Automatic annotation (TrEMBL):
A matching Pfam family: DUF4135
Domain Lantibiotic biosynthesis protein dehydration: 90-461
Native species: Nibrella viscosa
This protein's name: Lantibiotic biosynthesis protein dehydration domain-containing protein
Source domain of life: Bacteria
Length: 510
């Protein structure tokens, strides 16, 4: 697989500038201990090359245009020049490509070696026998330390989710849901988890159709119960990609923000303030939305009737790896209501025809929480499962980081470390201007450091922490995760419940 320039497998020829970025895959190719089936290794190499190409393409297209403008006509000569000069002329890009390739390879290595080490525990936890890896789909979600959530297919047809971080929060969430199921008689779905400390394996939740009208009514009843659960816990980020309609079960599949602290500086522009979302409301989780808040309809966890498709601009590469190569855009329609909306007889079924089932589920669960205040705050509280959990704090929406990294692909930034770093700092610091913002400079520094490493910044903390990034001198949260839940318990009331039902009815009527 250590190929000379121009001798490239047929399936790779559609990747722009593949001959230029191919040398950066040497670290991946040289990993002899990967022990993957040849076709899987080819697939992963293609994935890596696509990511490297995307990182480099803005710079390389600018160079290609200069090459053509100078009167040159030999594309192979352009490739040779760029292979020889890229590291010298674009040291930032060179480093990014090397880091991305090394991280990608280490990520694959970790999945395989950890699977081999854990295979007996995996078989026991998930009731499997004599399994081996037959496929890997990488990076479902944000990357951190070069790794991301990935899907692993096994020889018996089973799929598992590999998470390169602590998964104890999912254990705790399952335990709390079991308590809710006993109280509400809702039978909300939980799933198996193998917690291995700094990483873990999680049961894959299949998207499945419902088989009857009764199942649809049960689905939306459970969805109402689940909305009440996220309200009590103070959950965030339960958008359409984090919810699966698995038969008659709505399932939240990512629990890293299922509990959240409350930031104490109201002068910062939070998601709630930006979109006029009331605190301690059913709108915070993004499972539902109100049109008068300004929150985007396309992200809604439970969906919005009529919002199944969204019009977008799609990036298309024309004539890759020729002098006539260019990026074009076209208007396309893509599905947003996919795995988060239940399907019956081949059609999506939204809450509108089942709103009373939904409201009943919400009301029953809310009433249980309201009548269980003493138990929820007692020494035997089911909330004790969340104590000392590691979770993730959303400092700012991740799409902001992605937009910044996309902008910084310009050649002028890729040619100079100082320019790249200062521009990154300036763009991130816009949210920190104003009185008393110097106190939070350590957060800005942390963001810059992680993004310079090619990561989307993630803030990990324990559920009882009042601080971020190990800066214990500054109490940054008004309520930590546990305190926030207890505060919300105190605020439960009949009047508050009726207000939430009004929010629900507004969502249904969009």
């Amino acid at each position: 697989m250590n190929q000379a320039p121009y001798k490239i497998k047929e399936q790779l020829k559609a990747i722009p500038f593949v001959e230029i970025v191919l040398p950066y895959t040497e670290f991946f190719i040289s990993k002899a201990d990967l022990k993957l089936l040849p076709w899987i290794q080819d697939k992963l190499e293609c994935k890596l090359l696509e990511e490297l190409s995307y990182t480099a393409e803005v710079t390389l297209y600018a160079e290609l245009n200069k090459f053509i403008a100078s009167g040159e006509t030999d594309f192979e000569q352009f490739v040779e020049r760029m292979v020889l000069s890229l590291a010298t002329n674009y040291p930032v890009l060179d480093k990014k490509l090397r880091v991305k390739s090394r991280n990608f390879s280490n990520h694959i290595h970790n999945i395989i070696t950890r699977f081999q080490k854990d295979v007996k525990s995996i078989e026991s936890t998930f009731n499997l026998k004599s399994i081996e890896i037959v496929d890997i789909d990488l990076c479902i979600g944000d990357m951190h330390n070069g790794e991301g959530t990935s899907s692993v297919s096994l020889s018996d047809g089973t799929k598992l989710i590999y998470k390169p971080r602590n998964v104890g929060i999912t254990h705790s969430y399952n335990s709390f849901i079991n308590w809710v199921n006993c109280k509400v008689k809702a039978d909300l779905k939980t799933f198996n988890v193998l917690d291995c400390g700094g990483y873990g394996w999680i049961e894959f939740v299949n998207y499945e159709p419902v088989s009857s009208e009764d199942d649809l009514r049960e689905y939306y009843y459970k969805a109402g119960v689940l909305l009440a659960v996220t309200l009590l816990l103070g959950s965030k980020d339960c958008h359409h990609e984090n919810l699966i309609a698995s038969g008659k079960n709505p399932v939240i599949i990512d629990h890293e923000t299922i509990i959240q602290p409350v930031f104490n500086d109201k002068s910062f522009r939070s998601w709630n303030s930006q979109f006029n979302i009331p605190d301690f409301s059913v709108l915070e989780s993004v499972l539902i939305v109100n049109q008068d808040t300004g929150a985007p309809l396309n992200n809604v966890g439970y969906g919005v009737l009529g919002h199944v498709d969204v019009t977008d601009l799609d990036r298309v590469v024309i004539n890759p790896n020729t002098l006539y190569s260019k990026i074009s855009t076209r208007v396309t329609t893509r599905k947003i209501g996919r795995k988060n909306i239940p399907v019956f007889k081949g059609k999506y079924h939204f809450v509108n025809d089942y709103k009373e089932n939904f409201i009943d589920g919400f009301s029953v669960a809310y009433d249980v929480f309201l009548s269980s205040k003493v138990e929820l705050k007692s020494g035997n509280s089911p909330l004790k499962f969340f104590i000392s959990n590691e979770m993730r704090y959303v400092w700012r929406p991740t799409f902001i980081y992605f937009k910044i990294l996309k902008y910084l692909r310009l050649g002028s930034f890729m040619a100079n470390y100082q320019v790249y770093q200062s521009t990154l700092y300036d763009l991130l610091s816009k949210a920190f201007k104003g009185e008393n913002r110097e106190d939070y400079k350590f957060i800005l520094d942390y963001e810059v450091k992680q993004m310079l490493n090619g990561d989307i910044p993630i803030f990990n903390l324990k559920s009882e922490d009042d601080f971020l990034v190990d800066n214990k001198l500054i109490k940054i949260f008004e309520y930590n995760c546990i305190q926030n839940i207890f505060h919300r318990i105190d605020l439960l009331s009949d009047a508050h419940k009726e207000e939430q039902i009004r929010f629900i009815r507004k969502w249904v009527n969009i």
